[in-house]
Amino acid sequence: MSQFPHIMEPLDLGFTTLKNRVIMGSMHTGLEDRPWHFKQLAAYFAERAQGGVGLMVTGGFSPNRRGELLPLGSRLTNPLQVAQHKVVTKAVHEAGSKICLQILHAGRYGYTPYNVAPSAIKSPITPFKPKELSTKAVYKTIKQYGRCARLAQKSGYDGVEVMGSEGYFITQFLNQRTNNRTDEFGGSYENRMRLALEVIREIRQSVGNEFIIIFRLSMLDLVEGGSTMEEVIQLAKALEDAGVTLLNTGIGWHEARIPTIVTSVPRAAFSEATGQVKAAVSIPVIASNRINMPQTAEDIIASGQADMVSMARPFLADPEWVKKAAEDRADEINTCIACNQACLDHSFEAKRASCLVNPRACHETELLYTPVIKAKKVAVVGAGPAGLACATVAAKRGHSVTLFEARDKIGGQFLYASKIPGKEEFEETIRYFNKMIEVHNIQLKLNTYVTADELKSAGFDEVVISSGVEPRIPDMPGIDHPKVVSYQDLLEKELTLGKSVAVMGAGGIGFDVSEYLTHEGHSTTLDKKAWMDEWGVDISNSTSGGLKPMEIEPSPRKVFMLQRKTTSLGKGLNKTTGWVHRAVMKMKQVEMIGGVSYDKVDDQGLHITIKDREGVVKEQRVLDVDHIVVCAGQVSVNKLYKTLEIDQGKSFGLHLVGGAEYAGELDAKRAIKLASELAARI
Predict the structure, then answer these.
(1) What is the distance between the alpha carbons of residues 611 and 601, in angstroms, rounded to a whole number?
(2) Which of 34, 428, 575, 656 could form a disulfide with 335, with the two C-beta atoms 3.0–4.6 Å apart?
(3) Active-site residue (options: 44, 109, 157, 168)
(4) Which residues of the chain have pLDDT under 50?
């Protein structure tokens, strides 16, 4: 018996059986848009099928040109495309899994000048105002959904998922905020849900009864004017009658100002909404959003809130998620930390998606961890993210690896990140690497400052220096004043600061430190009710869109966040998560000041000069603060590398990775990727 019997139980759909209750949810990877990438797309899905997932869903394919998410983006409209899709379905079936194609019409969310929507209302997150579809064009679009499903069936897919959530085309018809029509597709809710039902009827008629149809239903819109749970359930029942096989959960529109998938969202935050729908229908219902570990998934199904769980990014992080859970090896799962840095951020930048903690994701045919023919003796100095990635990949390939770490534990900068409220998931990455050190027999030497002479005399074939970074301390009068602390000392020593604090620097670390300083006691990420109250989420969805007044926990101290640049603070943060950090700073009433030059620190506090974009002095000010936290960047720690580099007689390959090579903005994505690629070459 598995530790997780509910998620491992097969699900009989009548005409077919899913081997477990785990769905790999839809993600746009960037491999869908061009036919020459389909072999890579097939390898990506096949690796996850081999990892045990019962059913997977592709990224979105539009049923017509007007519904494209990106210009000339993924769509399935022509029989000539069937052959390329068969490459994907064949690979998945040979690996023992099933796959559905997602049909996604972007509506007003399309980044194209030719997008269409129920009404000519511009989206706040895309550049083009859509054209309103005529009634005749709506019926034509319904037929095109059926054609797309029929082509998917011919391509070997086991079913389709109709995207009816996240604010895309069908959702735009459902809600008055985006539907001002006066024909049979507008006005009353019965009329507004007509499109969704007609699409399902058309698809079912086109593909017959023995074909999976998933409908991704928005169960919590989180926007003003959104659906109530009463309307959601009304639609769910009608979809069941229309021929839907499975109902999947969608949470929030992309324009919603409430986070739904970032790392600060509690695990399984929205499963109660799914549970309300499950209680009202007889077909299986799927829970989604911030489910990343087997116990969470098991608890959802065991509690009766859902019949299945859908996870997307966790399968980027670890393609063997299901296999490891089935074999009671959950502690070996490389957990998705919901950082979005290499997946969603890449997608929004029109780059190929990947994963910060697993750079092989979507690069399965390029980044190969092939077993070595002749094992080498490898030393890795520094057990931060880069050193850990390099050590574990090298050991996995068969090398004999010794990992040196000066501290008493592994993790490097991730140790500090995990102390930030909302970033507790980073502890999972440290847990994973600790387990990999054990599994791959890496010799770990903690509390060890290894010297150049020791490395030279130990007979290593390869030496990798990943000694990380240290905080950059600016040269200014009073920088050694007792009021001044570095971010590293603050987090490592868990210092208690005063009631008024200035944060010097507004990069990622500046925002993290400000979040740390504006929270006290338990993190709302670990308290679902507190999180819902603070963000104003009505999980019962008894109100329109599931919104209620926010109950913000006040900051325990006054915080000033400062930066030298005159641009908006936080402008350089990641696209899909930066707005959340900025929103939290606003909620906690952090005073954010740009265009700052730091004059001095003394007993009065921090003396600053504020300039405008033209460099003209606007104001000189003294911030009467108890403490100043320096978040002014980092410098590489690479003295050992430089010592070894000048030794012309060294008998080993010498390499530099991570922050020790480039301090930058503490880019863990870059560090782990380059370290993994190095380990794949050694």
Answers:
(1) 19
(2) 428
(3) 168
(4) none
